[in-house]
């Protein structure tokens, strides 16, 4: 075996060259691999190889370009040079695929003369999720194999296909046996080497669709999936590049692809999405908690409280394969929760998302119980009772008395002090906060709240659990509202201040949806319920717009009106809301002024960046990127904007500080984060390189 460089080796079996790529963890096509492939192909040909098998070591075939190289000056050889060398090879080059051939990995394979894959492999072009398009010929080669519609679907969804589907589509020429990829690739090479026909190259094929058919397919896609294109730039560019492939001038198509790729690479959307890619992976890393700290085994779980949250958590646990004992003293509440669990699971069968056997298995794993005694053997118990400290402490005392030692006791509190809950037990190190967002079976964010005493392996278990549930676990220290709700509370206050100053609730909501949020703060309040968030029924003094609306029974969608009137199709700001705003303005002596959209945008977002800076300086988060991920996963912050800290870096921290100071001077109750002020003064950034 010959070393080509640090990541590529060359072997020979009966005249067949085996080019092995080995760049852990995912064989991303960084410079060393690109150099190694180029030199390896040349060496194989110099050595008289009759065919070349390109295969990867480790867990996967190449999972794409090295994303870490994006944004830095590109260093040759680039992937197209490797592809050109492969396509120019006088002997067949065969890609042998296991794991995932993604992005540049699939593009590399598409330049090979043949592709072989084990059935468990998957292949795809996921660049769209990084705000990019496949920039190494993917938009030109894939349509030549699968046609325009399918290519568009794969590239705009970013979803990989299984090797079996790829075989049916013709992306893969043959399937190999699981565990025998190399043997089968060598056998395949023997079959095709020396054939008299010219070597097949995808670039030499014609796209089956005409330009008119491509235009129709693109129009259909835009009509059927308008949200793909909202705010996101890459899907439109992908359509343009694929349309170019139907002109059947390969080089011109490649030039068009490159132009579009470079435009995306320079875009804010792509920078934001790449930031989100790396941040998503960073959040699960806890400083000081190495891989040697193993998660505790969890199979049997318990949930206390059969309300909305408890039921949602139960659904999430069942779907992830856990057994769940749902406990509530109220037999009627238990019955209702069980019915909702059953309905939700069966609805998924009806929608074709779950097969009947899996549904039955999920439901069979649920047990109902009226006493915490039934949780004696649980590995993990999640408490989801009413949000009152005394009640939660009582539940934890009871749990402490019955649950086996070593089990994890979690609270789903959304703002209470986890340390004060842990303190009533004899095992505060085993207590943790698991803050789910409603609906708990759907929302992606799981805030993992670490109390002072929490054991490392309990934290590790919570991080493992989040992954198992398909959620994004973000670790937070103990503070009021933790990460996401604490930040969004500041946005709510800023919105109210601007509403009194002259903006209308629907203007404020529109500015937020224009920015990419699924809904603005007032529509959200109407959905959640004005009575649920921030209204203290016993001490309501009718001083704020929310209090006035709540006292008059306008609690949001569930009562037919809140900030908006929901009776007719499109919600309109209600006359009660306008009257309440007038009342408060009159009392506070505010004469309304016209407020521009820009003032609303910065007014609502600057305070989030300011509060985010406080989370960093208080050590509530490990890194600023955690804040971005919490808001993307928990509040639908548009991923193509990268989250608040990324946004703050992009618009400039010094501008934010200036605007905040001006608002403070106007008497707004904002306190400036010293960290934000310091970083702005030094021209530093939170997350952007
Ligand atoms: N470039 C650079 N680094 C990459 C990478 C890429 N294309 N793909 C993955 N990595 C890194 C991750 O950042 C992570 O690094 P870390 O361990 O330091 O956090 C590591 O490889 C493992 O990735 P992870 O996603 O945690 O592993 P996984 O087994 O869950 O998933 C993949 C593997 C390949 C499916 C997944 O990483 C992925 O989808 N990668 C991106 C593929 C892509 O978009 N390719 C097109 C690029 S243009």
Automatic annotation (TrEMBL):
It comes from Novosphingobium bradum. Pathway: Lipid metabolism; fatty acid beta-oxidation. CDD domains: crotonase-like (cd06558). Its main location: other. Belongs to the enoyl-CoA hydratase/isomerase family. Residues 481-565 form the 3-hydroxyacyl-CoA dehydrogenase C-terminal domain. Residues 302-476 form the 3-hydroxyacyl-CoA dehydrogenase NAD binding domain. This is 3-hydroxyacyl-CoA dehydrogenase NAD-binding domain-containing protein. It is found in: Peroxisome.
